[in-house]
Amino acid sequence: ACDMKGFLAVVMALIPTFLKMKRSKPIHLAFSYDEELGCTGVPYLIEYLKEKGFKADGCLIGEPTDMNVYTGNKGFSEWKVDVKGQAIHSSLALMNTSCNAIEYAAQIITKIREIALDLKNNGPRDPKYDCPFAPITTGLIKGGIAVNTVPADCEFIFSVRLTDTKVADTIESAVKQHVHASILPMMKEEFPNARVTIEKGVSYPAFNGDENAPMTKHARHLCKDHEIRKSGGGTEAGFFQDVLGIPTVIVGPGPGTMAHLANEYVLVSQMEKSMEFTTDIVKIYTATPNENKL
Hints:
It is built from eight helices and eleven strands. By secondary structure, it is of the alpha+beta class. The protein folds into two domains: 151 residues, Aminopeptidase, CATH 3.40.630; 130 residues, Alpha-Beta Plaits (2-Layer Sandwich), CATH 3.30.70. The protein has a four-stranded antiparallel beta sheet with strand order 5-7-3-8, covered by helices on one side. It has a three-stranded mixed beta sheet with strand order 9-2-10. Strands 1-11 form a two-stranded parallel ribbon. α4 packs antiparallel against α5 and α6 crosses α8.
């Protein structure tokens, strides 16, 4: 309800109001899917809009913000690393007749940790975020079949949340360079067919709003909110702002702290505020010359 069917209900309920308005410009509603799975649905829409040369004066993302104005959220990228060695009974380990995938995966993870600490200490920072730097985390790992067997396989996934989307390419390049220069030569000494594959998975861009854009200024005026707020969690806003170049803000009903909880709900007062705000922002951009603008 809060994240974010409340806002969908708002815009659908406002359709009769929009249709009755004397408008000089169209209003577009963009519904996506699988946002919670890493924004995997919206790229198809973005690609379609790019092909059509779509332009807009502004974009309103209705993620729950307690009707405050958010002008930033971190992007996200994840990678799956698959390490392939050679199995043998553990009594014959380290005789160049096997290759321990878990141990070499551990060395790669150690390098990723080094990159993470360097990015923390020397990379870009934004104090408006609770976590001001881009944190890298190894979150999942699996490998091996038994304690008495040298593991032939190990797979792990690491990810980063970042304010500069381009940093993801730098991270990927550094990890691949380390693997090819340091890890694979050692693995192949033990097992010539050893390999490491690094595959990029879910990825979506950071959202970096423009405080000087009219869309941002109008939203702040209507919400009476002039505090700069940014979220460490992800939204689809970066696709519209950073990919399509449409001035974007995030303003929606309900607090973000309510998202992903059992018995999610949105207060009626928040829904009413969202309806009023959405109507007003639409009037600003679409009113005919003979209509009074706010």
